[in-house]
Amino acid sequence: MAGPSTGRLMPLLLLAFFLPSIVHSAAVHNVHHRMLPSRSHHRRAPSPSYTPPNITFSPVNGSSSIQDSSYHRLTGLLPTVLENAVESSFHSWEIGTLVEAILETYYPSTRAFGYDPNYLNGKVPTEALQVVVAALGSYPWSGSPESTALNTSSADLSDYLSPSSAPVTLAPQALVNGDGSLGDPCSLGAGVWTLAEFLTQQAASQSLSTGNEGADDYAWAVGNQLQYLRQQPTSSNGTMSQRENGFQLWADMGYMIPPFLASLGLATSSDDLLALGINQWLLESSALLDTTKDIFRHINDFDARLWATGNAWMLYGACRVLASIGVAGETSNLAAQVGSTVRQLSAIFPAIFAQLDSDNLVPNYMYESEPSLSIGDAAGTALIVAAYYRFAALAPRYATQTLTAQANKAFDGVIAQLGDDGWLTHVVDPMGTNGWVVNLNSGQRSPEGQSFLAHMWVARTALGV
Ligand SMILES: *[C@@H]1O[C@H](CO)[C@@H](O)[C@H](O)[C@H]1NC(C)=O
Ligand SMILES: *[C@@H]1O[C@H](CO)[C@@H](O)[C@H](O)[C@H]1NC(C)=O
Ligand SMILES: *[C@@H]1O[C@H](CO)[C@@H](O)[C@H](O)[C@H]1NC(C)=O
Ligand SMILES: *[C@@H]1O[C@H](CO)[C@@H](O)[C@H](O)[C@H]1NC(C)=O
Question: Residues near ligand 2 with C-beta < 6 Å?
Answer without folding.
Answer: 58, 60-61
